[in-house]
Known about the structure:
- The chain is of the alpha/beta class.
- It has helices at 11-23, 34-44, 60-68, 84-92, 105-116, 155-165, 174-182, 191-204; strands at residues 3-7, 27-31, 48-52, 75-79, 97-100, 129-132, 135-138, 143-146, 149-150, 214-217, 221-224.
- The chain has a 5-stranded parallel β-sheet with strand order 2-1-3-4-5, sandwiched between helices. It has a 4-stranded antiparallel β-sheet with strand order 6-7-8-9, with no helix packed on it. A two-stranded antiparallel sheet has the order 10-11.
- Strand 3 (48-52), helix 3 and strand 4 form a beta-alpha-beta unit.
- The radius of gyration is 18 Å and the shape is globular.
- The termini are far apart.
Amino acid sequence: MPRVLLIEDDPAVREGVELGLRRRGHDVRSAATGEAGLAALGEFRPDLLLLDLMLPGLNGVQVCRRVREDSQLPIIMLTARGDDFDVIVGLEAGADDYIVKPARPEVIEARIRAVLRRIEDTGPGRPATEVHGDLTIDRAGLTVTKGGRRLALAPSELKLLLHLSAAPEQVFSRQQLLEHVWEHSYHADARLVDACVRRLRNKIEDESGTPRYVQTLRGFGYRFGPL
């Protein structure tokens, strides 16, 4: 089972989430502050980080940015509220998903599995390696290079790119992408998609403001080019 690092300052929430994950077989390490959580990363080497947004001292957004400086570790942010500003800032910092507290253990488990699930379907009839201009997508190795330089893509960014590029020119609505990439079967929050698209464009596009690969069709959704 995946190893989970939980950074949460509320003792009741921390103990409840940790107990729920342990009952489901996870190896869990918990920390009450961002500083303690960062210190535990190297020693514990988790498969996923559950990160509270509102931490004392070094807050969740700052922790997320620190992790993203040199790691693509999957990150799910925990927030006590679904406030637009807080959620968007957390997603822009590099989180792969977020959960509004309080959340049932089965919901947390489902989100963990969705984020960690390996990408097995490379798309019907798709070659293992595709070249689109200076962008090369290796579906077998799950790597992406631009101009010969390997890109560091977070799990949600890689899944989004693989899904869009498997059907070039096909337009996907935000809801379709939520269901296929994030595996949210309910009418979920489109901010996950929009924030991930912005992060992906910053990495694969020459000019993120004039995207060549991930294009927006206003009122419909997104599609993969290239132009």
